[in-house]
Amino acid sequence: MNAKAQAGATGLDTIRLAVAAVLLGAGIYGFYHFATYSTLLRVVGLLAVSAVAAAVALQTEQGRRLWQFTGSARTEVRKVVWPTRQETLQTTLVVIVMVFILGIILWLFDMVLMAILRFLTGQEG
């Protein structure tokens, strides 16, 4: 009995997802079809249709799981200890300096290799 209920819910979920996809496609089509109208009106219409499509998609099992995942992700982001502005600035400066130093080292290495190749091929003036 439970397997049949899940199968019915899965079929209904598929229909809901298809309706959401069709709504989203229709919104995008309408955005370009009504190109003569104001861009503001077209964007508002597209956002409205997208919101309805999202509401329909969130009614499915996959949509509910996505909503729970999003809530859990936001909770985890709040738990993160973010670096201060000073720490971020110092780390960025260290990275920039290291990239500059590595660039100079690679440039010198390239110069030495080119000098050796010129000497070996007899192209040195």
How is this structure best described in words?
- The protein has 125 residues and is mainly alpha-helical.
- It folds into two domains: 2-79; 82-125.
- Helices cover 86% and strands 0% of the residues.
- It is built from four helices and no strands.
- α1 (2-33) runs antiparallel to α2 (39-57).
Strand content: under 5%
How far is the N terminus from the C terminus?
90 Å
Low-confidence stretches: none
Main β-sheet: number of strands, strand sense, barrel status? none
| Pattern of helices and strands | HHHH
Can you count the beta strands? Answer: 0
Number of helices: 4
Radius of gyration: 29 Å
Concise structural overview:
The protein has helices at about 1-35, 40-55, 60-80, 85-120. The chain is an all-alpha fold and about 120 residues long.
Comma- or semicolon-separated keywords:
125 residues, mainly alpha, 2 domains, 4 helices
Write the layout of secondary structure elements.
Elements lengths: L1 H32 L5 H19 L3 H19 L5 H37 L4
Helix pairs in contact: 1-2
